[in-house]
Amino acid sequence: MAQSNVSGRPFRLFRNLNAKIAAIPMILTALVIFVGFSLWTVVYSFTKSGLLPRQDFVGLMQYERLWSNTKWLISIQNLLIFGICMLVFSFVIGFVLACLMDQKIRFEGVFRTILLYPFALSFVVTGVVWQWLLNPDLGIQSVMRGFGWESFAFDPLNNSRIVMFGVVIAALWQGTGFVMVLLLAGLRGIDDEIWKATRIDGIPTWKTYLFVVVPMLRPVMVTTLVIVTAGIVKVYDLVVAQTNGGPGVSSEVPAKYVYDQMFLNQNLGQGFAASTMMLITVAIIIIPWAYLEFGGRKRG
Amino acid sequence: MKRRVILAATTAMIGCAAYAEDLEVTHWWTSGSEAAAVAEFAKAFDATGNKWVDGAIAGSGGVARPVMVSRITGGDPMAATQFNHGQQAQELVEAGLMRSLESVASADGWRDIVHPASILESCEIDGEIYCVPVNIHSQLWLWLSNDAFETAGVAVPNNWDEFVAAGPALREAGIQPLVIGRQPWQASLAFQTIVASVAGPEAYGKVFGDKDADVVNGPEMEKAFAALATAREMTAGSNVQEWNQATTQVINGQAGGQIMGDWAQGEFAIAEQVAGEDYTCLPGLGLADIVSTGGDAFYFPAIDDPEVTAAQEELARVMISPEAQVAFNLKKGSMPVRGDVNLDAANECMRKGLDILANGTVVAGIDQMLSPDAGNQLADLMVQFFNEPGMSVDDVKASFIDILEYDS
Q1: Per residue in B211-221, pLDDT tens?
Q2: How many angstroms separate the CA of residue A89 from the nearest CA in chain B?
Q3: Into which CATH architecture does domain B141-292+362-407 fall?
Q4: What is the arithmetic mean of pLDDT over A268-294?
Q5: Using CB atoms, which residue from A248, A259, A266 is nearest to B372?
Q6: Cα–Cα distance for residue pair A255/A268, rounded to 1 Å
Q7: ipTM above 0.95, yes or no
Q8: Which of the four CATH numbers 1.10.10.10, 1.10.3670.10, 3.30.70.1350, 1.10.3720.10 does domain A66-299 have?
Q9: For residue A162, with 0-12 CB atoms within 10 Å meaning exposed, 13-18 middle and 19 or more buried, which class applies?
Q10: Nearest residue in B to A135, CA atom
Q11: Are the beta carbons of B233 and B171 closer than 8 angstroms?
């Protein structure tokens, strides 16, 4: 290994030349579109651009306005509520469902399809469906009252204090099946020998799941975590379809703030500043993950 | 042989194009009365031998404007598009993406026929006219359901104060006293109406036009903010979203009143209600004889094709022609932009508006005074206020001053 490295070093750039040439278009796309345009956005977030980009630099003014704006602060707060609830519940529910599926039950395929099905729907459809379900005059509340429970009240979408939980319910309904399937795939990858060994040692099944299987699922968990988290940061269409930020501004989210600033308020600078803050958030999530996934392997 | 057919087909197409041009016109007029009104324009334009391709964008202006702007900046412009005149399209004009209509406007003498003149001035940038104003909308109205007050056993109010006094009686009869759709622009509209009516037109001009913080802190605005808090109490319990759903509640007598622009009148007309018998309209909340001169206008993106350009000019002429103005505005429930047209068919409410336009106080619309940025921030602030019973008037006042300062 070491020897081939030494002899190959001078020609390293030319090794696998065909593959490298083939990768050039993708590399250019990544550099120009992802890196280049992101940098452009960051640069213009320091300007006072209106409907069209203008090189009228104003320093940190857009950021000052951003962080003193109630709507943005509410957006951040909502994203935290949404993110924490989503992560906790989708993992807990998803894992429990995956374990249940893993019991070699009959008609597993049918159940798996039913639970995964909502994931095939777009967030827009999900949002509209749950807007109806949570509408006090047609949805769950009116059905319960129809059954004779007259005092039943459940209308999160009209209550600014709990509206985000209405959004979380819809997102969980849509996304939990996906988490379940990923974790189930991980569970299927666990060697049967491990199960036999724990059974011989007399360890209860639930303990095996929590203390043996979960640590072994780490790679699947990390991947799922990154996918779910990325989905949380960019949540937009669900909120637009379900509540459109209302009532008032109580269910605003950062991605919607960016869109509203750029296209409704005709204030590109402010939208760029907000999207730069979102980019930083995503970077904070992605960089440690990339380090764990790729950095760790090289060392090993 | 084949080539000859293609050639013939091409010639035929070119031949057609010389006589008739298809123009795509985008707008956000999708409610019953609005669609009926815009069909009048389409009919008049089709009569010239051209073809109106309707590009209605459902939602509201807030949904439609980004689509329109991105099509224009993205190099796929429509032939004509609606905006509220004022500052919404200003940057597009400054960037040279919109064509000037100066040649048509000066040839046809728009500056003489458009009344009030301020409505055309908002189309003017650097001395050239860039849009065709098509209607005058006054936002400052209170619409009342006569049925609702009859059910509650109180007389139909003549002004805001009587309306507030009748609130508890309406509640008792199971009627929602006031409905305001829970969308930001509607909350903002209610605020503007209250400022112009309760604080008075002078304070309104100083607040929105001069952005004078001293006036915002002054005694007139104190009254306006108090009225705003009252309005919030009277809307409590309603969760209507769209303005026309709110109007429907007033039409059905489920709600006592709605603060809305005069386009609500179109909905009453479609429901075959009669002004004065079934419903009552109070311009300036019945406190002041005022109308505002917001409105809709059509802008024409610059397109490098002489045939399209000629058709655009034709469309502009059609829109401002007396016949189209009357037909359109009667359906839409708005006032025509020219004073020289025959409006015998106008109903009681529209007459009130026209009288004020001729003799009363005319104030500028908010789109003419605030940038879209400030306008939307104001709307966000107001919808927040209406939805959060815990938000105090002082908080609103402070945030409002911040918005005005940023815009000046």
Answers
A1: 999 999 999 99
A2: 29
A3: 3-Layer(aba) Sandwich (3.40)
A4: 86
A5: A266
A6: 14
A7: no
A8: 1.10.3720.10
A9: middle
A10: B239
A11: no
